[in-house]
Prior knowledge:
- This protein has 330 residues and is mostly beta strands.
- The chain folds into 2 domains: 3-207, Jelly Rolls, CATH 2.60.120; 211-327, Jelly Rolls.
- It is built from 5 helices and 24 strands.
- It has helices at residues 3-6, 149-157, 189-192, 200-207, 211-217, and strands spanning 10-11, 35-40, 52-54, 60-67, 72-77, 82-88, 91-95, 102-106, 111-114, 120-124, 130-137, 146-147, 160-162, 168-170, 208-209, 223-227, 232-233, 238-244, 259-265, 268-272, 281-285, 290-293, 299-303, 310-316.
- The strands form 5 sheets. A 7-stranded mixed β-sheet has the order 1-22-19-24-18-16-17.
- β20 (268-272) and β21 (281-285) form a beta hairpin.
- The chain is globular, with a radius of gyration of 20 Å.
- It starts with a helix and ends in a 14-residue tail after the last strand.
- This is Cupin domain-containing protein.
- It holds the Pfam family Cupin_2.
Amino acid sequence: MTPQEMEARIVRYGDLQPCKTAFIDAHTPGSDQKENFTIIGGGVSESPDQHVHIAIPHGFNIGAAGQPPKCRNSLHSHRTAEVFFVLKGRWRFFWGRWGNAGEVVLEEGDIINIPTGIFRGFENIGTDYGMIMAILGGDDAGGGVIWAPQVIEDAKEHGLVLGENGKLYDTKKGQSLPEGVKPMPLLSEEELKDYPEMSPMQVIGMGVRRYWDMVALAGDRPAKVIGEKGIIRDKPGFEVDFITGSAASEEMHRHDRPSVLMPVKGHWRVTWDANDSYAAGEATLAPGDTMSVPEYLDHAALPSMTGEAALYHIVATDDPAGPTWQGQPS
């Protein structure tokens, strides 16, 4: 391949293609202005309109949510890990059966590893359009979204019905459930007992790390944010490192599986050596860009100018992308 073809593995922020009908709450007031993005992997969209930018399996999915002020994402759960970092804006994350078990406000660069098995939602509480970037465990992202019962009921009142096949049908467009397809059943009271009400201390203490704390930790070497030996100790099927300009190294390195670079501050120049599949080349990444680095490709990333610079680096591990210890609180 040529260096120009490597550009196909870079998704630029300005080229992101949103889907406004990705989930069941797309018509629900307060949630009807969301934009969802599937950057790497199939994601968990319930709509055939969702565009996938890079379909190459990585062992995890990368997505994003863009929302105007006061727009929220409804309460839902996943069977695998869901990690967010704030790219732009100010966001409130909340959780629990009714969304009132706890909440935390995150600023730009902050990261949250939300425990599996609890209902969670998020809202842009800033004054401008905001964006959060997401990492979902597994290539199939846990097989979809599990919605709190009231979300499915509210959506039906506004014309959207979710089939048990995981697909959305818009009655406002004359759509109906196909023959033989039943509506997605609501979780029973007995099933809801499997979704714990975790305290703020549990969720924030185990899963939230602040941008400026990570900058301090990554003063001279990358900080492992999520991993068996990370500052968030979890094994969700992937690891997340935080790299600052002062911690970046010009030494070339490689991984035995695809990895992902996601700048959050500053501009980064990524260089790579030639191998049997790729010619040597370089590219510059800005905040909001996402780059998939092929396996066994020697590469390095350095800030392209002076000033503040930080990025997140994600790579899959051999750990199963299922419920983690954080989803089983005592």
